[in-house]
Amino acid sequence: MDKNSIFAINSDVTHGRGYVYCLQYHIVWCTKYRKKVIIGNIESDVKEHLYRTAEDLDIKILAMETMPDHIHMLIECKPQCRISDAIKVFKGNTARWLFLTHPEIKTKLWGGHLWNPSYFVATVSERTKEQITNYISSQKEK
Asked: Taking every annotated instance into account, which residue ranges of this chain make up the domain Transposase IS200-like (predicted)?
């Protein structure tokens, strides 16, 4: 590598002790059977609880939108965060909390499960961050 090379450091990078990072993920998960249960008060409660859970996990939610049958999130986390575990916590805590505060949801679902067990996750680059943010924020318009 050339000693005279200049490296441009993205302004979104975070400095940790001994490392510099910028890890962002686009995450999507759906309700079981794609049932449209994230509506009305439930929608605002889900968002509030996801923000609280993210704070507990030391994860930043950069963008989020809920649809009646799925959730989109753009998050940023530390390298020590295992994304599969974070998603499990997001889904598990939210389901438990919603079933306790909105027991009427159970009548719309078979088997007592709120979320489909699968999810989508993709890494986000500096070039795609704006596109994904716009995509998530325009979900309600579609």
From this structure: 20-139
> Which CATH number is associated with domain 32-141?
3.30.70.1290
Judged against a pLDDT cut of 90, whether residue 116 lies above it is answered with yes
Query: Minimal CA–CA distance to 16: which of 75, 59, 74, 80?
Result: 80
0.70 surpassed by pTM: yes
> d(Cα 132, Cα 13) in Å, to the nearest integer?
18
Percent residues over pLDDT 90 in the chain? 65
33 is catalytic: no
pLDDT above 80: residue 103 = yes
Which one from 19, 21, 51, 135 is the annotated catalytic residue? 135
Average pLDDT, the chain: 88
According to DSSP, the residues that pair with 122 across neighbouring strands are: 26
Distance of CA 20 to the CA centre of its chain: 22
